[in-house]
Amino acid sequence: MGIIQSIIIKLKREKFKRSFLSIGASGFGSYGYGDYCTISGAEKIRIGNHSWCGKETDIFVGEKGKLTIGNNFQSTSRLCIECNTCIQIGDDVLIEPNVYIGKAEEETDNIVIEDGVWIGQNTSILTGAYIGEHSIIGAGSVVKNKIPKYSIAAGNPAKVIKIWDFNKNTWVKVNA
């Protein structure tokens, strides 16, 4: 790669980073922004340090929307976020492929994903969802309710199937 191409790439990265409301130290630049991504409403997005989105990511923040993504966020590929309210994604969140985060029928409720959450592939996180810290959402789940911290939830609608027992230091099955 020539010097001129290198300069052009650096200028494009800088322009891209400046379009956000706030962006962390490592940014969402080429080292944090995959191929074939679409971002609309970047001026309403806050992104923490060392966050990364994989290829084919689509993020749309509407007129009344606000999206906050914490530090060390990672999504693999084909993440779609549709935000017309407030979506908060905490630190150290891992999202597998083909995940949708956004509106259900009503656009009035916010979405909160706390720190240390792992979301399995082919999952939908809908308005009104609240996922507590260090929880795991199973593949193919639809979350539109509150999932407590330190739990495993799965299904449509997602239901808690296990909770971490700190006394036994293991996952404990939840009786239905």
TrEMBL record:
CDD domains, sorted: LbH_MAT_like
UniProt key word Repeat: yes
UniProt GO molecular function: acyltransferase activity
Pfam families the UniProt entry points to: Hexapep
Alphabetical list of InterPro entries matching this protein: Hexapep (IPR001451), Hexapep_transf_CS (IPR018357), Hexapeptide_acetyltransf (IPR051159), Trimer_LpxA-like_sf (IPR011004)
Keywords: Acyltransferase, Repeat, Transferase
Record has Transferase as a keyword: yes
Protein name as annotated: Acyltransferase
